[in-house]
Write a structure and sequence with these properties.
Elements (H helix, E strand, L loop, with lengths): L16 E3 L5 E3 L3 H22 L9 H17 L6 H16 L9 E2 L4 H21 L6 H24 L5 E2 L10
Antiparallel strand pairs: 1-2, 3-4
Helix pairs in contact: 1-2, 1-4, 3-5, 4-5
Length: 183
């Protein structure tokens, strides 16, 4: 098997640019690089989630999501890869519905927390929303890239609630802003 990465320190980015797979170089603050970075950060947050929630039944699909995020990164970097985004988004939606069916209905907004594992899932959800905003800024990507990240943030929200229950941690709910006359 050939090595994809033979040298880590190349010094080619010292000038404030980074290379894409096709050889083009972009400024490190280019919107495309921002999107790539946000998707990479999301993948790292999911890796931490897996490390914290090792063995949690609810997390059994997170590694598959990590693989999908690498594919999405390749699409952002190259823009021309085949990606079954519609299928993958539909799968995320099915997983979300499956997990949500076992949860009590929500009557109020959930505050991030619910134990270390659930809190990490909430962090991943917030990073996913940022990645979605960065991808939306690129108008040359397939719509399925945006939809996938939107469905993934839904899944991460439900997964956080599921992990709180799986680890026996209470969820905390927003108490609402005090309204005039209710003090």
């Amino acid at each position: 098997m050939a090595y994809r990465i033979s040298r880590v320190t190349t010094r080619s980015g010292d000038d404030g640019t980074t290379g894409l797979a096709g050889g083009a170089r972009l400024s490190k603050d280019d919107p495309r690089i921002e999107a790539l970075g946000a998707v990479d950060e999301l993948n790292c947050q999911l890796g931490l989630l897996l490390a914290l929630a090792a063995g949690a039944e609810a997390c059994r699909r997170v590694e598959e999501v990590q693989q999908d995020l690498f594919d999405l990164g390749a699409i952002i970097a190259q823009g021309k890869l085949e990606w079954k985004g519609e299928e993958k988004s539909a799968q995320l939606e099915r997983w979300t519905e499956e997990l949500n069916a076992a949860l009590p209905p929500l009557e109020e907004f959930v505050l991030p927390g619910g134990g270390v594992e659930a809190a990490q899932c909430h962090v991943a959800r917030a990073v996913c929303r940022r990645a979605e905003r960065r991808v939306v800024a690129l108008d040359d990507l397939p719509e399925t890239a945006r939809v996938y990240l939107n469905r993934l943030s839904d899944l991460l929200f439900v997964l956080a609630r599921t992990l709180a229950r799986e680890y026996g941690q209470p969820e905390r709910f927003w108490q609402g802003a005090s309204r005039p006359g209710e003090d």
